[in-house]
Amino acid sequence: MTVEKGLADIVAAQTAISDIDGKLGKLWYVGYSIDDLAQHSTFEEVVFLLQNRRLPTQGELDDLTEKMVNDREAAEFLQDLMPTLAKQTSPMSMLRTSVSAASAYDPDGWDQSPEANYRKAIRLISVMPTLIASYDRHRQGLEPVEPNPKLPHAANFLYMLSGEEPSQEAARAFDTQFILYADHTMNASTFTARVVASTLSDMHSAVTAAIAALKGPLHGGANELAMRMILDIAEVDRAERYVKDLFARGEKIMGFGHRVYRRVDDPRATILRLITREVGEHLGELRWYEIAETVEKVVFQEKGLRPNVDFYAGVLLYYLGLEIDLFTPMFAAARASGWTAHIREQYADNRIIRPDSEYIGPRDQTYVPIEERDQEVAS
Ligand code: COA
Questions:
Q1: Is residue 44 a contact partner of residue 65, using CB atoms and an 8 Å limit?
Q2: Residues 296, 335: one domain?
Q3: Which of 300, 310, 315, 355 has the fewest CB atoms inside 10 Å of its own CB, making it the most exposed?
Q4: Prediction pTM value
Q5: 48-62, 118-132, 156-170, 212-226: lowest mean pLDDT where?
Q6: Res 262: pLDDT
Q7: Ligand 1 contact via 310 beta carbon (within 6 Å)
Q8: Which residues constitute the domain of residue 139?
């Protein structure tokens, strides 16, 4: 028996949704390169692609866009719950709780048919930005902003956060970030979603579990921590010392390293680096980008590590005006498109995911009645 700690290199499923070449630094959704999709596509089109495994015709895209617009509003129960969640929980806990609660109000109820699951997937993708924006408005003591049916998914998210229509540049940058976060093969949260789906549990439960997995700093939480580090560095000429001190203390630098992209750039980071610079230039505030670029150089010199998707994603979201603790929820809102596609793929050809383990504890122990045991606490 061989044990692969962290399940590295274990193929846990066959999928037709996305593919990575970790040596070449390439990522494809349904065979389309992420570079092409980032340049030419929209998030709505990518949602169609991931869910249907082909690009839509104009009519199909219009139809999906209309569905997504109609599904933006949160159930009344969630709207009522939000002021309490805004007071009591972190944004990721709010999202996990709200998505779980949304199951009780889904019009398809416990219907597990493929058609119902498709509708549930689109509803979840559509409503997540509304939940996040409404939470953010409540915690600032502001009224939530109604979704604007004229705006695309990503632009509407920015609009619901600030109450102002974003510039074309900001809307496009945010839309691209949605595309880049949409799917990434068998990452920890997608695997979690598929494990839950493989027990034939429902769509909302599988997405709730995926949000819980994404919450951790080794997965989605890295974009927030990377930006907090950059803010803490504060000045470009402090970056080198700061990074070297972190390494000297044996600490990890968030937003660097990747299980799959070892000796090449994460292709999403390459695109985000470029967009972040453009947005920084547009805003006349390149400082955060320049600190990030210096950190990247020093980390590479010192450890040979390259940035992953989360590093520049954090800086870009900061430039776009998101609160830092909304970075991971935004990631979840985008990744919901991939999670739900994987969950539906799992349902379509299911076998319960149940790996093995290697037992390393003691064997053949003799049971001692409690009154005869030493008082000593074992550990
Ligand atoms: N900072 C410092 N050292 C790092 C590092 C980082 N961000 N990422 C990896 N390393 C080091 C590890 O300590 C390890 O060193 P060692 O061989 O001396 O023990 C080596 O690089 C290999 O990394 P490993 O932990 O085996 O990689 P993994 O595949 O198990 O983990 C990550 C991958 C992404 C979890 C890991 O790189 C990490 O924790 N990165 C920071 C968090 C992050 O950005 N997550 C977002 C992922 S998209």
A1: yes
A2: no
A3: 355
A4: 0.94
A5: 212-226
A6: 87
A7: yes
A8: 18-216+327-348
